Amino acid sequence: MSSSQISESEQEQLIEKLEVFKIKGKDKQGRKILRIVGKFFPARMVSVDVLRKFLEERIFPRLGKKKPFSVVYLHSGVQRSENFPGISALRAIYEAIPIGVRENLEAVYFVHPGLQSRLFLATFGRFLFTGGDVDFVVVCGSLYGKLRYVSRLDYLWEHVRRNEIEIPEFVFDHDEDLEHRPMMDYGLESDHPRVYGPPAVDSPVSMYSMRCIS
């Protein structure tokens, strides 16, 4: 199913239901946290215009004006064919972010980046986060410099309080796999998804259960 097969309102409802974006808690610097779960993003079912509208109406206003915030992006389990909207879409979404919101963003914690995503950002990151005029380039360059790769959840807890953010169960599982197979970080081992048993009856989202540790 593609974005052309469901209405815009249904696409917005889908983003809301999947909790791709969630503002909750604060990091150790007292900043609001915008959590983004890459695996939850239905790239094939949501158009760029709908995503921009959703962010502009439901996410950016809740971040507040002149209030610093941080982003925790969970890349665990992301599949390019299912969750990646494309380079041009990423740039369009980025350019739609109000300047004030960009300036208030102080840190981006990229959890479980993997080799491919590191290479992608090293190659296209400055293209995505730079523009035509000098002021824009300065702002975007500083944003690119706020990116922090976090290879393990233990390192995330150095910056974010554990009981302030909800982490999906599969992220913990992926973290455990990396502990036992560290070469996965460098793309030298196969990174097949963990096999889950069949979900319980009437619980279609059991594989996305949350675990919040105190």
Q: Can you characterise this structure?
A:
This protein is of the alpha/beta class and 214 residues long. The chain contains nine helices and seven strands. It has a single domain, classed as CRAL-TRIO lipid binding domain (Phosphatidylinositol Transfer Protein Sec14p), CATH 3.40.525. A hairpin with a 5-residue loop joins strand 1 and strand 2. The relative contact order is 0.14. The C terminus is likely disordered.
Number of strands: 7
Strand proportion: 15-25%
Largest beta sheet, briefly?
5 strands, mixed
DSSP helix fraction: 40-55%
Please compute the radius of gyration using only Cα atoms: 17 Å
Low-confidence stretches: 132-141, 186-214
CATH class: Alpha Beta
CATH fold naming = Phosphatidylinositol Transfer Protein Sec14p
**What is the CATH superfamily classification?**
CRAL-TRIO lipid binding domain
Order of helices and strands: HEEHEHHHEHHEHEHE
CATH architecture type: 3-Layer(aba) Sandwich
- Mean pLDDT, as a whole number? 78
What structural class do you assign from the helix and strand content? Answer: alpha/beta
Number of helices: 9
Counted up, domains total 1
- Shape summary: globular
Strand order of the main beta sheet, please?
Answer: 1-2-3-4-5
